[in-house]
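User: Could you check the structure of this?
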Amino acid sequence: MTDNHAAKSYIETVMARAEAAWNKREMGTQKVLVELFKERVQQIALEHFTPSHDLHHSPGCLDRTGAAYALLVNLVRAAALIIAEIERTDRAAELKAAALGDVDA
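Assistant: Sure, the predicted structure tokens are below.
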């Protein structure tokens, strides 16, 4: 099984589970949240924009890219990139705290 095939299979499995879980809820936002989750998983699994990859970007880079996608009305991709920036910021803070020996971070 190739990496792309495995990633696609993983995405399909995750998406099926996410959709099943959200379909049990009575929320109007369920479709957009599933689409957002799908986009972020695709960025990680298929495009290899992993959390460790994201750490190599300068602060604000991912959210500025997300803003550019928002201007192009690709709002799901924009939101996923903003989430990636939040994840990058959190991960950078965790790594910095670990390097400084701060166990509460």
